[in-house]
Amino acid sequence: MRLVILDNYDLASEWAAKYICNRIIQFKPGRDRFFTLGLPTGSTPLGCYKKLIEYHKNGDLSFKYVKTFNMDEYVGLPRNHPESYHSYMWNNFFKHIDIDPNNAHILDGNATDLQAECDAFEKKIKEAGGIDLFVGGIGPDGHIAFNEPGSSLVSRTRLKTLAMDTILANAKYFDGDLSKVPTMALTVGVGTVMDAREVMILITGAHKAFALYKAIEEGVNHMWTVSAFQQHPRTIFVCDEDATLELRVKTVKYFKGLMHVHNKLVDPLYSMKEGN
C-alpha cells in the first residue's frame, strides 16, 4: 500500500491524472488490447477529470482503446436527470474525450430487473478481462462506491439502501431537499473493486481525515469499507495535506519519505511531453 500526500487538492488531482495517463500509455492499448478503467463520481474526482481532458486535448492521451466501468448509479432517477451519474460522467468527462460510447459502462438504475442488471455488469467486467485500474473516492464515513458501513468486504455488484449520512451529504446536489435524494443505488461491491489489478483512492479535505485514518492506521473493518484495501496487493491512496490531519506524525513522515524514493526510482510520473 502507498500513501501519496500532496500539498493541496489541485496537486493531488494532477498527480492522480498523471498516474492514470501514464498507466494507459505504458499499457499500449490497441484494437485487440483495451485498457480497462474503473471510475468514480462525486466532487473529489472532478479535478482529476479536468486534467485528463486537458491531456487528451493536448494530444498526450487517447481513450479510443479504453473501456470504463463506473462504480454506481442511483435507482429510480431518470437517466437524463442532471444529478444522475450518467449525466455526471457525460457532462464532466466522456463528452470531452474520444471514448467510444459503447465502451463506457454505467449501471442502469431504471432497469426492470435490478439484480439482473447487476449480474450483467459483473459479466461485462469479466468479459473485458477485469479492471486494470479502479479509481475511487470515499465518503466521510469511509464508504467506497455505495458500500455503506456494515457492507460485506467480499460483496459484488448489487442493490444497496443508502445510509442517512450519505443521503444528507448528497442533499446539496438536490437543492438541499432530502425528499428529492434517492434512497437506493446500484453499486459495485467491495469484492468487485478488490478484483482490480490496481486500485487508486482519492481522499481530499479535512472532512475526510478521520476516514483516511481509519483506512490506513487501524485494522480492516466492515464499518469502514475503504479499510479493505489494506489487503489489496496494489493500492494507492492519493490525498492532500488536509486529509492527513488525523494521521500520526510518524505515519505522514514515513509515507512522505517513500514518495521521494518512488518518484525517483520506481514510478516516475513525469514522462509526458512537458519533460518534467
TrEMBL record:
It is an enzyme of class 3 (hydrolase). It catalyses: alpha-D-glucosamine 6-phosphate + H2O = beta-D-fructose 6-phosphate + NH4(+). This is Glucosamine-6-phosphate isomerase. GO terms for cellular component: cytoplasm. GO terms for biological process: carbohydrate metabolic process; glucosamine catabolic process; N-acetylglucosamine catabolic process; N-acetylneuraminate catabolic process; UDP-N-acetylglucosamine biosynthetic process. PROSITE patterns: GLC_GALNAC_ISOMERASE. Belongs to the glucosamine/galactosamine-6-phosphate isomerase family.
